[in-house]
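Backbone-to-sequence.
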């Protein structure tokens, strides 16, 4: 490592942000906390980079404020301290500055003893260095899928870029074989074999966004008391406060938020030359099992896995829920707001901790310290991997806007309504897909194309419903009536699907009017465009009923494609 190089994240400009005037700029760690009330959000190279950096910021905030919470009187609730922070115009800069000053040297990318999120002296037996593209998730091996510098040969990274990608690779690195390094007893044949992606790569990342970065930091700053009545364990330390772990630490477990937010999934050393990073050493770090981290990992939803329980002979087992690149965030609302479903006396799923904390803050028990009249963005982000998680195939980044009232106990009926309406929309979209299939069958269409055409129709339907549902969800508030809002959504959704259906029906040729037989087992059903249309509207009335409509079920089940 170049001993002359120095780049301290506390003082140097490296985090990309958007200020209150809409101007993009880079700030240091210290300036970010100072300017947080006047900054809108993080805008780094990838949304997942924002997520990883946000977790580092939360770890710093936690460790800065921990002394304040440790000194609380027994009759003072941690939520009261959170409320004081929320009502203040600035973050507690005295505590933050004192903390960053204490650990100043640990934030230097090129410190000779403890470089930030790295291992000093890390080397392969042949002293080889990998190209800087190895830590850039927007440049997967052999394919510039998300390249931000498309068409450019990436030979180096600036220190600011390297800092951002270093944090990201610890959180989201791909699996696959890594370089074997000196001192790692798990290396075989000069290679370090896969231990999974970085920890955050397993998550369907969720965080709350406020109007300013100060609000965002506090909304995701969870201060629950644990079973020992401690808000934060004294052993819950971020990586820069910990001692370096030995290679092959396969049994290490995180203690709390600060620990897991900065988990070192990889061992890294950046190589600097002439003011830029020109190479690096990258190998596997601390492996972390996915199961049952729901009490520590607050930025994802969790589901119970009976398959894993059966396989491992352990009950219960909860695993993080990941996002799906082909499904908008609003279509997965039920996973964000886990219903009180229980099986064998155990919860079937868990809401992300950051949402559960917000729910508490809007409740009477939480002192209603979070107003029920503000609007919040629920932001979901993550990576999708392929080929045994060794390559990045897609990036997920989506938000939904809703009133904080929906997070309160009083708003739970509206949340249940929204989740039900998603399910109703799914059934209505399936009905549209069935309509297209049946119209093609009636017209004598190519059997090989029927499934593709139906899927295309469903994709178009979700596209048309997308902005409609988002607007409807954002409009729900303290004055909303469950019955009235269901009718409003059903009416608007039916208008959209009706227009699409009429277009598909109008495109059917004469053969569709005459129809043809479709075999089902030993029997057959004669299908015409008018029959397909009747089945569709029967299914729509069932999926999206309007007040006064009879729900027609005949033909909507067994006769659909």
């Amino acid at each position: 490592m170049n001993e002359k190089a120095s780049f301290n994240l506390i003082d140097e400009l490296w985090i990309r942000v958007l200020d209150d005037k809409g101007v993009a700029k880079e700030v240091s760690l210290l300036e970010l906390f100072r300017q947080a009330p006047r900054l809108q959000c993080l805008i780094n190279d990838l949304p997942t980079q924002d997520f990883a950096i946000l977790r580092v910021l939360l770890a710093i905030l936690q460790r800065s404020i921990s002394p304040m919470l440790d000194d609380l009187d027994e009759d003072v609730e941690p939520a009261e301290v959170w409320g004081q922070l929320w009502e203040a115009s600035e973050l507690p800069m005295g505590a933050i500055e004192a903390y960053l000053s204490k650990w100043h040297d640990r934030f230097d990318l090129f410190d000779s003893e403890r470089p930030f999120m790295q291992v000093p002296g890390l080397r392969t037996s042949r002293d080889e260095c990998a190209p800087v593209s190895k830590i850039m998730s927007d440049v997967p091996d052999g394919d510039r899928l998300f390249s931000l510098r498309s068409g450019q040969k990436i030979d180096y990274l600036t220190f600011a870029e390297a800092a951002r990608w270093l944090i990201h690779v610890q959180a989201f690195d791909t699996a696959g074989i890594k370089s074997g390094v000196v001192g790692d007893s798990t290396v075989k044949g000069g290679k370090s074999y896969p231990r999974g992606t970085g920890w955050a790569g397993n998550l369907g990342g969720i965080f709350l966004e406020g109007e300013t970065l100060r609000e965002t930091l506090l909304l995701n700053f969870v201060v629950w008391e644990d079973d020992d009545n401690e808000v934060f364990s004294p052993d819950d330390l971020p990586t820069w406060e910990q001692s370096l772990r030995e290679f092959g630490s396969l049994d290490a477990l995180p203690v709390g938020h600060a620990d897991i937010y900065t988990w070192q999934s990889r061992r890294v050393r950046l190589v600097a030359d002439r003011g830029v990073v020109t190479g690096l050493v990258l190998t596997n770090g601390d492996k972390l099992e996915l199961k049952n981290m729901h009490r520590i990992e607050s930025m994802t939803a969790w589901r119970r896995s009976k398959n894993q329980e059966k396989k491992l002979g352990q009950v219960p087992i909860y695993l993080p829920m990941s996002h799906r690149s082909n499904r908008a965030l609003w279509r997965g609302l039920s996973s964000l707001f886990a219903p009180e479903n229980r099986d064998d006396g155990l919860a079937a799923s868990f809401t992300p901790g950051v949402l559960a904390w917000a729910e508490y803050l809007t409740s009477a028990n939480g002192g209603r310290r979070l107003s029920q009249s503000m609007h919040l963005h629920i932001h979901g982000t993550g990576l999708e991997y392929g080929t045994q998680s060794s390559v990045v195939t897609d990036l997920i980044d989506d938000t939904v806007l809703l009133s904080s009232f929906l997070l309160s106990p009083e708003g739970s009926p509206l949340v249940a309504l929204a989740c039900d309406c998603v399910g109703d929309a799914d059934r209505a979209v399936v009905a549209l897909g069935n309509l297209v299939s049946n119209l093609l069958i009636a017209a004598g269409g190519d059997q090989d194309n029927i499934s593709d055409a139906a899927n295309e129709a469903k994709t178009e339907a979700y596209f048309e419903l997308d902005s409609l549902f988002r607007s409807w969800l954002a409009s729900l508030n303290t004055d909303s009536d469950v019955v009235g809002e269901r009718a409003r959504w059903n009416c608007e959704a039916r208008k959209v699907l009706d227009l699409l259906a009429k277009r598909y029906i109008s495109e059917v040729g004469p053969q569709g009017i005459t129809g043809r037989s479709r075999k089902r087992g030993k029997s057959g059903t004669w299908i015409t465009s008018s029959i397909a249309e009747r089945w569709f509207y029967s299914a729509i009335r069932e999926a999206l009923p309007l007040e006064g409509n009879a729900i027609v079920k005949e033909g909507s089940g067994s006769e659909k494609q």
